[in-house]
Structure formats: structure tokens, C-alpha cells
Amino acid sequence: MAKNVHVIPHMHWDREWYFTTEESRILLVNNMEEILTRLETDEKYLYYMLDGQTAILEDYFAVKPENKERVKKLVQQGKLIIGPWYTQTDEMVVGGESIVRNLLYGIKDCHEFGEPMMIGYLPDSFGQSEKMPQILNGFDITRSIFWRGSSERHGTNKQNFYWEGIDGGRVLVHLLPLGYAIGKYLPENKNALEKRMSKYMPVLEHGAVNDEIALPNGHDQMPIQQNIYIIMDTLKEIYPDKNFFLSKYENIFEKLEKTPNLDTIKGELLDGKYMRVHRSIFSTRADLKSYNTRIENKLTNILEPLASIAHRLGFSYEHGLIEHIWKEIMKNHAHDSIGCCCSDKVHRQIQDRFFLAEDKTDELIKYYKRKITDAISCDITLDKLTVFNLLPYNREALIDAQIITKMKNFELIDETGKNYKFNVIKTEIVDAGLIDRQIVHYGDYDPFIRYYVNFIDTIPSMGYKTFLIKELTGEIEVLKSKNEQKIENEYFIISVNKNGSLDIKDKSSGISYNRTLIIEDGSDDGDEYDFSELEDDFVLTSKDVVADVEIKNLGLKSVIISKFSMDIPKDLDSRKAKICDSQIQIELNVTLSAKSKIIELEIDIDNCSKDHRVRLLIPQEIGTKFSISDNQFGSIKRPVIDEAMSIWEKEKWDERPDSIYPMLSYVSTDNKDGLAILTNSVREFEIIGEKFDTIAITLFRGIGFLGKENLYRRPGRPSGIKLETPDSQLIGKQHFSLALTTNSVNLANDAKEYLTPFVWYNKMPYNAMKLNDASFTLPYNFSMLNVLNKEFVLSVLKKAENKDGYILRAYQSSTNKIDTSLNGIEIMYETNLNEDKTSGQNKIVLEKNIVKSYFIK
């Protein structure tokens, strides 16, 4: 029996949930004053843990800046325990760079006051990513605390063990077997306290590996328990053989690290046996999750590499603006916020943050493109089109750009006079006042023309190429679209069926994939936490619809536009009666470009029904036993059916272990052949079909409650609270960006190319906002660096936080080990994820699914 009970004073601080951030901030001001006063005036009250996240302090100091010194003194005394996170991050649908920045900025915030708590404290995240041990180790964190996702089938029934990632990383874990709130509002009454603890103490005892167990004394937004000494005295009376004392988790870990023969478990932890992990929360509020995906990709694939190029060329790297954007979206990465298991009011606040973050990202991207293009040599006084390649290798691909000018005709040349052929797809008139209001101020009302052009060229690695726009006489010819029966490029032949589905022939293998892109609609009697269909479901598909199909040949790219409607039930009552009394309108835009092995999909849906789930089905005609998808900095292989499906009811799991899983940018099967799906929006999939030969991508779920009780897939109490959330029905128009490609060992790089398109800037003599010229000129073409091995996957290129150089972070998922070097820049040494030097390695060596960071100069 464990002798020592560590009473851990804390508060679990959901910034928002069914209540808003502003509601919780009012409570925070109240609670913090009580906490600070108690720690300052009571020498025996040794510790208080501030939930492991510095966003609490940010929220607090926004309204109580005068208390910074009080907090700093208590942190430095070791009494107020802060960090290491910025927010309590989700681990399933949030990208690797987001999790890294969460720790990077959280630890940075802590150092303003003192030392952070170096424990990976995530007490309520809905499952544990197998990459988390590796990420934590990247910050020299070797200790972890969590609640959800583990069970004895992982290899231990203890609450303390070592947890390893599949390919790397190892942390010592203190599991919270009953959650973070078993010590909430402990009653003074001895009988009531004994009744409460009699439920918990046997569980804590059973899982103990030494004499130490933890009793977390706190709860959601709970104020400090002022009578805790009386409570501990009463506990001592109830359990005379035990010691009860105020403590901190560090003290428990110090004892654990001296405990021999601890169990080791490995891999992803997504079991909902003893606590719910909500395996289908990945698709709740698909609109907000798509927002997050898009912004993450813009930040890491476009903005930060572009800002690094700009800095290398002599411009300022705006750390403060970029950190501000990261923190804006990381406020939305808290488990409830990105899980979207919140009230409608909170979801509106989340949407506002995403809107602001994307606007800031887009404007900063535009700023850097402009600064670079404006400074390019003025030897030739022509308008410019500068195209940026933000991948670390030279890339030949289609350039889709827009040129705004008053010219009626022009050509594209480079600085040597070489001419480049291009297509004009369409034109449109642009009011002069939108270009520069000073033009119309002085009486020039002649409109500009926007030309949509495309052409193919090779753009230098991590750099740019400039095209000059030279006026010609006459009028430019606009390409006339040709109606086709199919579309084709070097890699695929694609034809469309009468129901709008596609037949795709892979030229390299000769394999045809028929009737892909079927829409499936079924019931959803679940809530914001979990999908759960009706027991007697009524599932419909688009197999028998008749689509209105148009195929356009636009020179260097072809587009299939397929529009159709599906008759579906309007709500659960109609679904139960199997009555189709509503419609859903669907438009699929399929684009195939020259030189590209990626088939781009833009899907628009106008939803008028409630309580249903809509999925996109991609039949493979090849059965499989495993899916392959990406997680943070690598890939993960999962079974298409969880073996616990046969025992979950008998063992009374908290939720059914369906094989509905998250991805970040791609999913495929473990077959050599087949189609893979890439995403820049939704991140949930399931492998379905009698032979498990179909990938189902959840486009969206419409549900009307935050929490509901007694679901078909999740029996028992509601998760959260039963609160109506009509906005989560997603009535109205929804948009999704996906892509198809063939399966390959280098799928991670295919996804990276899809998510890192060429970006461009059109320089003309006018701008709505003026900037002074740079004091230097830039070349017409530039490459910052070049990687020689294309199996290398760039995670990010950014300026180092505190050094005059750059951080290059990379991984690979295609082979056991690769090594490569960089041209154009010097590798100084390897760093950890906190950007501290770890070795003098001056060559890039990447083992499979292991992230590495390098300081380059």
C-alpha cells in the first residue's frame, strides 16, 4: 500500500468551453488574487500549479498588469508553478509545428518570470499522439502526465510507466487514472469525505508502483480550497497509515525515477476503455477545423520560408508578428476549442480568431512578396511577375498567376530577353480606385484589366524567378475553352461517369480506379464529441444521381465540373421513417495540371438538413488490413478494424473503438498500389467496405447538441453538458480542399508539394499603400538553399529565435535512413526543438519518422 499521498493544489483552466474566454477571465481575476495572497501569506502552503499553460497568465495580465512582479516573485520562489505549454494543446488534429511552437512560446513566456515546470502536462487531451514522447524530448522534457487513451492492453495496468514513440522518444509517465479532478471541492464532513475517497483510493492503490500516489486538488475554474489543512487532517483520521501533504508533481517524479522495473508501453494511445477519447471528434465543426488546417499550412509552408528568404536578402524578419499569429491559432488549439465541443457563442469566437489569424498571415505573406519584388533590379523598367518556390529543390510545375495592367497586349520575358509562352485563361475589369485611389483622385477613371495566365517553368529552390511584362501592340488572345470527354496529362487519364464519379487510369501502372468520389450521407444521432448513427440507419449515396457535367480544357490544365443534388432526410425523424424530404447540393471541381501527379479537388456543398454525416468515398478495388497516414513529423500504420470491437461491450468500455482516425495531410492504404488522399481542410478518415477497400473521408457532421446521453456508439452519461448548439448543424455552404494521387513511399513529399504551391507577386507602378524603396537592389533570380535528396521532407525553414541564422527542421517517412547535404548555405550544428545546440553534426542525417532540426547560416 502506498504510504505517501501528494495533495496537488491546481486549477484546470479551460479558457473556453460552454462558457467564453471573457466569462472565465472574470473568474480568473478572482481566483488569482486568492491564490497569490495565500502563497504570499502562508509559508506552509508550498505549491500551486497553474495548469501547465501560460495563456492563463497572458489573459490575467491583460487586465491585471500590476501583478506581474507578484507572480514573478512567487514563480522564482518555486511556489507558483507555471508552464511549459502556451495552451493545453490537442494532439490529434494539430500539426507538429503547432505543438512545437506551443512549447517554444510557452517556455519563452515562462522565462520572463522564472523556470517552467518541465513536465509534458496534458491532463485532458483526447488521446495521446505517439509522437509526443519525441516532441517532449526535443525540449529536454522526460516526464509526462496525462489521463485519456491508455488501457492495460498497451502493456501495463499501472499508473506509472515509460512511454515510447514507435520510432523514437521516451518519457516517464504519471497517469491520472481517474482524471485531474478527483480532489475537487473535498468536503470537511468526515463521512462524506470517506465516502468520496472510498471510490478513488482503491484505484490509486492498485495502480501504484511505489509508496507515492497523487491526489489532484482542483477542477475546472475551481478556486483555491482554503480549508485544505482541515481536509488533510480528516484524511489522516480516515487513513491513519498514510501521510497527506501539499506537494507538486516534480516530487512524485523524483521518487519514480528511482523506482526500478517500471513497465514500458509504446505507440499511440487512443483507447476509450476507462475514459472517453472521442475518436470521431476529428470532424466536428469541419468548417473550423478546415480553417485551422489551411492556416497551419500557410504559416509553415509559405510565410516562414518566405520571411527567411526576405531576411537572407536583407529585410527584417518580423518575429513579433509571426509569434502573434501563432498564438492566435494556438488559443484555438486547446483540446475543447479545436475539438469544437463548445457552445455556439464560443465557436463564433474561435471562428473570429481564425479569421484574424488568416488575414494576418495573408497580409504578411503579401508584404514579404512585395518587399522582395520591389527591390529587384530596376535596370529594366517594366512591370514584374515574381514567382516563389518555397520547397528546398528546383521545381518545374504549372504557374497560375494574375497580372493587373492597363496594357491590351504583352509578353513575358526574363532579364536576358528570353520569351516565355503563356495562356490567358480569362480577363476581368478592375476599378482603378481598387488599385490606387490616388489615380481616380486625379481624374483617371480608366479601368485596369486582370489577366488570369498560366505557363510552365522551373523555379529555383527556396527562391524566386522574375518575369518581366513587356507591352506589345494589338490585343491579347484569350484561350477558348475546349469541351472534352475526358482529361489527361503525363500521369493520368480521367473520365467522368453520369453520376459525377470518376474513372481514373494510372498510366505508369496501367491500373484503373473506377467510380471514385462517391458521396455518402447517413444519420448522426451523436453530439459534438462523437459520431453515432441511428441503430437502424438509412444510408444514401450518389451512385444513382444524374450529374450535370462540364469538362474544360484550359491549355495546360483541365477541369471537370460536376454538379448534382441528392434527396436525403431533413432530420432524424425523417431518417427513422426513411423519408427523403430535403436535398443536399454538391459541386465537385476536379483539376488536372500538366506536369502534376496530383489531382486537385474542390468540393462545395450546400447543406439544408440536420443530424447527418457526409463522407467522400474513394474505392480502391484493392482490400487492405492497414491504413497509412501522417501524424506529427512522420507516418503511422493503423489496423482497419480495432480488435477491441469484439469485446468492448462485454468489457464495458466507455465508448466503441471504431477505426475512425485523424490524419494531418494524407492517408492511403499499406498496399503498393492504390489512391492516396491529400487534404488542406478536413482531417478524419475510416477504411470501410466488406474487403476494406474504400477510403472514407468525413467532409462534415451536422449535430445539434454539445453533449447527449446514451448514444448507440457511446452508452451512458452525456459528454460535457447537454446544451443545444444549432450552429453545429452546419446549415448552409461548406467548402473542402482535397486531392488525389497514387500511393508511393514518398507520399509525405507529394503532400508537401500539394500544400506548398508556387506563390507570386505582380509589381506595377501603383499601390494602394506606399512603401519607401529599399536601400539595396536584388537579383532577378535567387536560391537560398538546395537539398539534394527529395526523400527529405521540409517541416519548416524559419529564422532562429535568438541567433543570427536559421532553423531548418526536417523528417522523412520513406526509408530507414537518409543523409543529404545542402547547397548554398552552411549547416552549423544540430539543435533540439527548443533551438539549443545538441551536436556539431554538419550533415543532415534523417532516420525514419524522426524529426531533426539544424542551425544553418
- What percent strand? 25-35%
Largest sheet: number of strands, sense, barrel closure? 10 strands, antiparallel
Overall pLDDT:
96
What's the total helix number? 16
**Residue share in helix:** 10-25%
Shape: globular
**Spans with pLDDT under 50 lasting ≥5 residues?**
none
Report the count of strand segments. 48
How far apart lie the N and C ends? 57 Å
The spatial strand order of the largest sheet comes to 18-25-26-27-28-37-34-33-30-31
Structure notes:
This protein is an alpha+beta fold and 857 residues long. The protein has 16 helices and 48 strands. The strands form eleven sheets. A ten-stranded antiparallel sheet has the order 18-25-26-27-28-37-34-33-30-31. Strands 11, 13, 14, 17, 38 and 39 form a six-stranded antiparallel sheet that branches. It has a six-stranded antiparallel sheet with strand order 24-23-29-36-35-32, with no helix packed on it. Strand 45 and strand 46 (837-839) form a beta hairpin. The model has no long low-confidence stretch (mean pLDDT 96).
